[in-house]
Design a protein that fits this description.
Number of strands: 23
Distance between the termini: 44 Å
Radius of gyration: 21 Å
Number of helices: 6
Largest sheet: 12 strands, mixed
Structural class: alpha+beta
Order of helices and strands: EEEHEEEEEEEHHEEEEEEHEEEEHHEEE
Length: 415
């Protein structure tokens, strides 16, 4: 086993760890450890909400989750010799849930997925499903099942939802400026258009005093992906993947967290993946001057690993860029088209007895494939959602005697 350079005691919050992690991106967050090019190492990771979600049958914890504390990241890790203009190579060697017996902490044999309330995070379909719901998933080796979503079982593509390097001061200022300008276009929107820096709930490793205050005042929230990597939520970001990060600060300051057991393209529930705490094994290296050599300046690039579930049969749902609620045509809007593909899949699964919320969570947690069919045929973009039929205990394909609606209960709801 590689050397553990960042450990996690599941019984303690991130702030209580021997070496705390962080939940803001800022170039001055102190390094938690130092690694050298070519080194292989293990990082233990806490579930992204810092243990706010429990293994129970109520969604009150999802409804009431404090998002100001999220995401809880392990790191940052200083890479010896890394300088601005380099490319940092990160190889994902292995990852998984917290090893050992089942326990009360997310990742100890179980994970969860949630539909977040519109007033607290929301999700891709939040205008259609504005309330909070939750499903608990039990891990069986590489497979997951749920008492809240019976009738499905699937192999996960375990991956980190979030990994990235620190921004420079200039890049951080650019993020804050442009995101505040976006918020100003509709400052009362629910959910908000973006999340500006917020001192409340900020954690910056061992920083304290004036340094902590400075980081909390201007540090970027970790919800979106940005030029440094961040919260990409790419399901194929799994074992065997190699990522090339543009380096913006000396040492690169690599961080990782938000581990997922399984997820579909888009993580459409916002907390659509099966979330977990666990471990990730990494190896790092450098390409000196690689940003200019390869023209990689604005975002990382990566080579996907070869590890993926071997599903071969799919039922594909298509959506176009029309808001069917008021029959309004949008111009080549791929987001609206993918949203409609998801809604069409939910409508179909309801015929087999799944509730709206169960179907929604299936699309977020199972390894669905999301694809853009076309963005050139005015006025309608076309997107498709490929749903693997082999994850269902029943044959859900059209034909035969037609759908048989089975009572499948319901996911966890709020009180």
């Amino acid at each position: 086993m590689p050397e553990v350079i960042f450990s996690h005691d599941p019984s303690k919050t991130m702030a209580q760890q021997a070496v705390p992690g962080h939940n803001r991106f800022h170039p001055e967050v102190p390094a938690a450890a130092t690694v050298r090019p070519g080194q292989e190492f293990r990082v233990e990771s806490r579930e992204w909400t810092d243990g706010q979600i429990g293994d129970n049958d109520s969604a009150d914890d999802v409804r009431d989750v404090d998002l100001d504390r999220c995401h809880m990241l392990s790191g940052p890790f200083r890479v010896e010799g890394a300088e601005p203009g380099d490319l940092l190579i990160v190889d994902i060697l292995d990852l998984g849930p917290i090893p050992g017996e089942r326990g009360p902490v997310c990742g100890q044999g179980w994970g969860y997925s949630g539909i977040f309330a519109k007033v607290n995070g929301g999700g891709f379909l939040t205008d259609y499903y504005p309330d909070a719901y939750k499903a608990i998933w039990d891990f069986h080796g590489q497979a997951a099942t749920s008492r809240h979503v019976p009738g499905v079982e699937y192999t996960g593509i375990t991956h980190p939802g979030l990994m990235g390097v620190a921004p420079s001061h200039e890049l951080l200022e650019s993020w804050n400026r442009r995101e505040r300008a976006l918020i100003a276009t509709d400052p009362e929107r629910v959910p908000p258009l973006a999340l500006p820096p917020l001192a409340r709930g900020a954690l910056a490793g061992n920083a304290d005093g004036d340094l902590l205050a400075r980081i909390a005042e201007s540090g970027a929230r970790t919800v979106p992906p940005r030029e440094n990597g961040g919260n990409h939520d790419i399901k194929n970001f799994t074992r065997g993947s190699r990522i090339f990060y543009p380096v913006h600060v000396p040492g690169a300051l690599l961080s990782v967290g938000d581990l997922h057991f399984s997820q579909g393209d888009g993580e459409i529930n916002f907390c659509g993946a099966i979330e977990m705490g666990g471990f990730i094994d990494l190896r790092v290296d450098l390409i000196k001057g690689g940003m200019d050599t390869y023209g990689v300046h604005r975002n990382p690039v990566f080579q996907p690993g070869r590890v993926a579930p071997l599903y071969s049969e799919f039922l594909t749902f298509i959506g176009i860029s029309v808001d069917h609620r008021d029959d309004t045509n949008l111009y080549l809007d791929a987001t609206e088209a993918y949203r409609n593909a998801c809604l069409n899949a939910i409508s179909y699964l309801k015929k087999w007895g799944y509730t709206d919320e169960q179907a929604y969570l299936i699309l977020g947690t199972s390894p669905v494939e999301g694809r853009i069919g076309g963005v050139v045929d005015v006025p309608n973009a076309c997107c498709a959602l490929y749903l693997p039929t082999e994850i269902f205990h029943d044959d859900i394909r059209p034909g035969g005697a037609g759908p048989v609606a089975t009572d499948r209960g319901q996911v966890a709801v709020t009180s």
